Amino acid sequence: MSNGRNKIAIVLHARHPTLPIYDKEEFEGLAKAAGYTIIKWYSQNLKKINSKYLIGVGKLEEIVQNQSGDFEGHRDDFATRIEKRREEDFVYLFLNRLKPNQIRNLSAVLKTKVIDRDLLILEIFEAHATTREANIQIKLARLFLESTRKQKELSDKLVTERQGRDFMGKGYGAFEAYRRSFKEQRKNLVNELEVIRKQRDLRRNARRDVYNVSIVGYTNAGKTTLLNTMKGAELDTKDSPFTTVSSVTRNLTVNGEELTISDSVGFVYDIPHEIIEAFLSTLEEVAFADCIILTLDISDALEEIFQKLQTTFQVLVKIGAYNIPVVYFMNKVDKLDTETFTRKQAQLLEIIPEDSVMFFGSALEEETAEQLCQKLYEIKNSLTPSTRVLSQESLSAMVERIKVLL
User: Fold this and answer.
1) DSSP-based three-state secondary structure for 94
2) 266 within 8 A of 241, measured Cβ to Cβ
């Protein structure tokens, strides 16, 4: 990810009642996954949002004045002086989502690269892309994200220019040229994805008589580890977000009957809609599953579990994954003491209907995997009479229920 060079980052975080609240620990994980070492944090509680920089001018001046000092302890990490460092080596990461003009203005003042949360997530996706489809989807996501920002920037410039009677200023040509270029690039990428989607449809039809299980959930919840243990596979697993970017399907035999189990890209809170749109063809595989294993890390703080569960439900609504039996797999119980486990179990039942199938265990343990496989066999053969099926209404209702508790 770092191309053989250290990547040093300083994080900036603005707080305001109108700004989304993001988890600091999650962001640190995202930065680490992208190959950055965070050396310092700056934060500011804003009374008013600065449209030019997001943060206040005074705070920005403080950061500029401290830049050499902040960097001093890391000068040996680079062959060049701070004034001549490479942009990708020393960056400022914003925990917030920035507007195009804010990124441009901040980069000009700080004289280095500025990356917001959305662009950071894209960097991680790019680093973990191993298939042609994933690479195309990432190109499409970056195109969506950057074009949204670029078109907004060009549109803002048009508003400030002297306009003719037909409202076409001198910048109109540039705007139209960019828009046409975007449409052409999008068309080419979507066409490539459509070819791959048709190939996937053929493969799915070839195994339509085989019971298909899809593992979904928040990123880093242990989905790939679970698939590894269930199949004895050796897929890449790390304590890091988005180790799986493309769907991975494995065959499994339980009590003489064949199943297929698929691991999908992980979800993350407030994931940019541009990424969801670009990866929709991959995520939609979940909607064709016969059963879903919804994986949660039960060792997380309870509020965090609720937030991640809400995000997962929202994505399932987005991709139309309705009327599918769901098994809630609460992973990493080995990290909890009995009292904490009992408390969390009771509070989770306030969100998840009582007749749902809930399974507690560790994705690392073969015994857990064997018991879960047996549970899937029972669901497949209707031996578990009260398997909860999620409808659009029940998904939406659970999202609202979680909002009350958060």
Assistant:
1) strand
2) yes
Distance CA 93, CA 103 (A): 10
**What is the Cα gyration radius of the chain?**
24
The torsion angles phi and psi of 115, rounded to 5 degrees, stand at -125, 125
Distance CA 352, CA 343 (A): 15
For residues 26 and 218, what is the distance between their CA atoms, to the nearest angstrom? 11
Q: Model confidence over 327-347: pLDDT tens digits?
A: 999 999 999 999 999 999 888
- Where residue 271 falls (left for φ over 0; alpha for ψ -120 to 50; beta otherwise) is beta
Residue 79: partners with Cβ closer than 8 Å, 6 or more residues away: none
CA angle in degrees (0–180, nearest 5) for 43-46-47: 160
Spatial distance between the Cα atoms of 274 and 318, rounded to a whole number of angstroms: 13
Residue identified by tokens 């004045």 is 65
Q: What are the tokens at 154?
A: 């060009």
Nearest CA-CA partner of 267 in 295, 239, 292: 295
Q: Which of 363, 301, 353 is nearest to 330 (CA)?
A: 363
Contacts of residue 71, Cβ cutoff 8 Å, sequence gap at least 6: 8, 82, 90
pLDDT digits (tens, 9 = 90+) for 8-67: 899 999 999 999 988 888 899 889 888 899 999 999 999 999 999 999 999 999 999 998
Q: Give the distance, in angstroms, between the CA of residue 90 and the centroid of all CA atoms in the same chain.
A: 24
Residue 82 CA to residue 71 CA, distance in Å, equals 8
CA distances from 152 to 84, 219, 278, 335 (A): 31, 31, 20, 47
